[in-house]
Amino acid sequence: MANEFAIIEQYFTRIGKTADSTILGIGDDAAVVEVPAGQQLVVSMDTLIEGTHFPQNTSPVDIAYKSLAVNLSDLAAMGASPAWFLLSLSLEDNDPKWLSQFADSLNQTASTFGLQLIGGDTCHGKLAISIQIAGHVPRGQYVERRGAVVGDIILVSGELGNAALGLAHKSGKVELEPVLQKKCELALNRPQPRLELTPFLREFASSAIDISDGLVGDLKHILDASDCGASLARAALPVDAWIEQHDAYEYALDAGDDYEICCTLPARFRGEVDNWNHAHPQCRLTPVGEITQAGYHLRDAERLIDLSRRQGFRHFD
Predict the structure, then answer these.
(1) Highest mean pLDDT: which of 12-21, 29-38, 107-116?
(2) CA–CA–CA angle 228, 232, 234 (5° rounding)
(3) Distance CA 141, CA 105 (A)
(4) Listed residue (35, 131, 149, 30) closest to 88, CA to CA
(5) Is the pLDDT of residue 282 over 70?
(6) Could you tell me the pLDDT band of residue 54, with boundaries at 50, 70 and 90?
(7) Where are the beta strands (DSSP E) in the chain?
(8) How many domains does the chain have?
(9) Fewest CB within 10 angstroms: 6, 46, 82, 204, which?
(10) Which residues span the domain enclosing 132?
(11) CA distance 87 to 161
(12) Does 162 share its domain with 296?
């Protein structure tokens, strides 16, 4: 059985596209990188654990893709472009077929999004993948959660709730027709990091966050950081027709795993949203509400639903 050093040498020494900022990559005690002139470093980290973040029968190809994609989503929300990443991999056993498929998918994903694996660690234990990712943003142009002000429009990219609906189907909680099943399982296993949005966010957004734990909970992070409230319109939420027909908006509001972007911007930029949607129909931005002085509620026809105590997905609840 190969040890951890042999695994690294065989599967992970040449992953991704070589970053111009990398001086020294895999093979030493630590990597050495430079930050290009006029840029700032944006760093994030996520861990995916079998049985919590992906079902036990998920393919290594999808696990590798998603592990990197969810980290790329964090960079997108900050307005950063990807540069490099570190990988910590915990494995229950050394399965050459699994490792080969995982490494090939990780390499393809990293190359597609233009970043390089520059180091990490492997160990024996329950299957878990931790990735620390770094990107660059022009100095002072990063986008924070703090910054929303009263009157700002609240927008989300793409559709909400599909990943959670896919997981519900796999868990036997709902029955979906084959076409919708495929769409939702794709959303669950292959989320699309919205890196194409980064120039738009840098120029127009007052705040942004990626939707990993549900719109309600993640938007609340913006509200808390910005010391303001929000009013959402249920009818405006971009969801699949199945969610509308079954009045199952909890998948879009609370369930998470969407990895879409929620952002706010001043109302004077509404025309820029229209321009973006015309040019990028595959990453449409939908206005779903507005920033208010205080309070947090959902408008559902004539009803106002208080959202202030709803938290979205939380690991230790």
Answers:
(1) 107-116
(2) 165
(3) 32
(4) 131
(5) yes
(6) confident
(7) 22-24, 32-33, 39-49, 81-91, 116-124, 128-138, 153-157, 207-211, 229-233, 260-265, 285-292, 296-300, 303-306
(8) 2
(9) 6
(10) 4-138
(11) 29
(12) yes
